[in-house]
Each structure stands twice: as structure tokens, then as C-alpha cells.
Write a structure and sequence with these properties.
Layout (H helix, E strand, L loop, with lengths): L1 H17 L6 E7 L18 H8 L2 E7 L5 H10 L24 H7 L3 E7 L18 E5 L12 E4 L2 E4 L12 H13 L6 E6 L7 H7 L18 H26 L6 E7 L29 H4 E7 L8 E8 L3 H9 L13 H4 L10 E5 L5 E6 L2 E5 L8 E4 L15 H13 L15
Parallel strand pairs: 1-7, 1-8, 2-10, 3-4, 3-7
Antiparallel strand pairs: 2-9, 4-5, 5-6, 8-9, 11-12, 12-13, 13-14
Helix pairs in contact: 5-7
Amino acid sequence: MRRREFLAGLGCAISSAQTPAARPNIIFILADDLGYGDLGCYGQKVIQTPNIDRLAAEGVRFTRVYAGDTVCAPSRCALMTGKHTGHCRIRGNKKDVHLEASDVTVASVLKKAGYRTGIFGKWGLGGAGSPGIPNLQGFDQWFGYIDQSHAHTYYPDHLWEDQREFYIPGNFSMKTVYSHDLLTPRAINFIEGSKKSPFFLYLAFTIPHANNELGNKMGNGMEVPDFGPYAGQSWPDQEKGFAAMITRMDKDIGKLMENLKNLGLDGNTLVIFSSDNGAHREGGHDPEFFHSHGPLRGIKRDLYEGGIRTPAIARWPGRIKAGQVSDQVWAFWDFLPTAAELAGAEAPKGIDGISMVNALLGKKQRNHEYLYWEFHERGFSQAVRMDNWKGVRLGARSKPVELFDLSRDIGEKNDVAGQNPDVAAKIARIMDSARSESKEFPVVERSV
């Protein structure tokens, strides 16, 4: 009898040892128009971001991560679908282009794998009545702005809650309810309601995007209830507002992280923080004021590094070693296959991303042959990163490729195409072959 009990106990121990670790909860926090140099952990000296800096101290801070594009809609499309802007459906901020029922998002992959899925904030991949709305693209729960134009005001008279308009009576005639303040409490409620199953939370803040219309009228489109710790500074009001927006977002991230710990979910939750593109010059804000692009050239709407290289931080206690700095190159389209691998799910065929799980865990990582972007405002532009080479072409095939060696010239000051014609030619061939044709986003010669 004792022998049978011993063998039974041994069998249970072996079975337990072979049981895979619980699939992690996944939280992706996305800022809007936050520059590479706007965070303390990336060199910012003035704007206070202690909670985001703590994420970096407790996890890994990446220095070579790229957004999906240099404006919001195509960048978010790459994040959600795992395809770069040469292949994804939405390649610019056109209002009537949306995801279709045939598109596969990271939310639909994770939902199929048993995850509860929620988005709070800015969507931008399909308007009301289209197949691109969040609830038809894999999200169980959603609250926020339906498109980028809607998101230009922080005191809207309505937002969207699932497939219904959520009216905000306090904003009908006065500015009473600041939309940003509605997002984090709902994200926390979503987490609290997901304790019994793994969850995917996409928290897409609109901060520090400007209210462009207000900026054009009043000169200050950095719309925020108060200037917080910067009220006494002798700065222009738009710069006080810009800094206050970022610090306000940082405080909300602190609240979210505290909630994870209080619920006992902290140890099995991967949190990733990033921005959808580079620093902006909108609403009266001057990106030079806080040196928002850091050492990089360019800002939002540029395909130089300052428009597409973005802060990226990942934290996962017990799995990601604290205090790391990684120079691993990856881009937004890698998020879908990364999340799929963590969830034990299969990523869809035909995507451009590769899983970055090894990079997160500090292991040897397979690299991309190249990264590709295209941009369709002000004509047509393309960019390619290949190893440490960066090529930018401001126009269609008739235009020359500018070439930069990022290992020596992170600020892209010196065009070395003339000294490296073979490399420039190879990047030009990639630019020609890396994209599929798009009726909505055709190749148009750059006008300037």
C-alpha cells in the first residue's frame, strides 16, 4: 500500500514538474506622439516620468525599437496585424480605409487562444458601422475614440463603448470631463474582471497628442486640466501643458501597476510600453523645447529615426531580468507573433513580424533581414533599416536613396550613399520589392 502511495505521489510530482507555466497576461500601453527623448529613462531632464522610469528599472529598456510608421493609423495597423506598411491594409491616415473581416489582429489571435481582450483609448483602424471596429476585430470590450480625428479633442461630447455611443453630458456646453481620465479606471476594472483567465489589455492613450484645431485657433493645443508640477515654470503655456500631459499619463501608469500588484497578477503579467511614432510639432508645441527627439533626426511625419524610432520598455518579473538595456532591433509588426508565442497560439501566415520572445528574455534572438516603412503624405517616401544601414528615399523609384551608417551616425547627418553605392543599390531593390500595390495608397512622386 505504501509503495502504491509513493508511486502515485511520484507520478503527481512528475506531472506537476512537466506542467507548463501559466500563460502570461499581456498589457501593451501605447502613448500618442511621445518622442524618443521625452522620458527620464531615455535622457529627459525636465519632464517627470517616475513610474515609466521604474518600469525600465524593473525590466528591459530597448534602444532600437521602431514604430509601425510615422503617423498613428498605419503604425497601429502594423502593431495589430503583424504586417509592415508595405503590406498592411492601412498605410496612412485616410478616414475611409479600415480593417476588413478577413484581417487577423493580435486580439483575435489571443481571443481564440482563450484570452479575454480589451482596448481602452484610441483605435483608428475602422469607424462606426465598418468591419474594422474593435469588437469585430477580436476585442471583447472597448471604450474610447473610434478614429484619429475624433481623438483630437480631450473634451469630446461622446466616446464609444463597444458599439454604442457613450455620451458625456458635462462636455456638451462646458469642458468638464477630461477624456484621458476615463481610460485608466476602465482598464483597471477590466483587469479586475479578468482574474480567472489570461487577458490582453491594449491601453492606447491619446497623450501627448495635441488638439490641432485648438492649437490653430489659440496657439496652445496641449489640452490638459491643469499644469500640475509645472504651473510655476516660466515656460510657454503649451510647453507646460505638454509636460503636464506626460506626467499625468505617468501617474496613471503607476496606478495601473499598483493595481496589478494588489491583485496578485504582477508576477505573471508582461507589460510593454511604447509610442506610436516620434515627437510632434503640433498644437504650438516645439519639439526642441524639451529635446523631445533626443539624439535623433526628424519628428512625426519623417521617416528619419526621430519619426519612427520609439521608446520601448518591457517588464515581466521573474522572466525579464531587471535593469537591462537592449540594442535588439525590432518593430511593431513583431508584437503579434511575440504575443502568439507567449499564448501558445499560432500566428497567422504571411505576416512580416517574427517573435521577439527570446529578446525579451535576454536570449539569442533571430533578426530581421531588413525593416521597411512607407509613408503617403507629401508624396511618397520609403525607409529601410538593414543591419546598421538606414536608407531613406523621398519619392518613387526615380529618386536617389539617402544612406546612413547608424553605428556611427545615429543623427543621420552624413549621407554616405556615394561612398557605398552597392549598399544603396541593395536598399533601393528592397524598397522596390518589399511592398505590395495598394489601390488606396498608390505610389505618387513626392511634390517637394
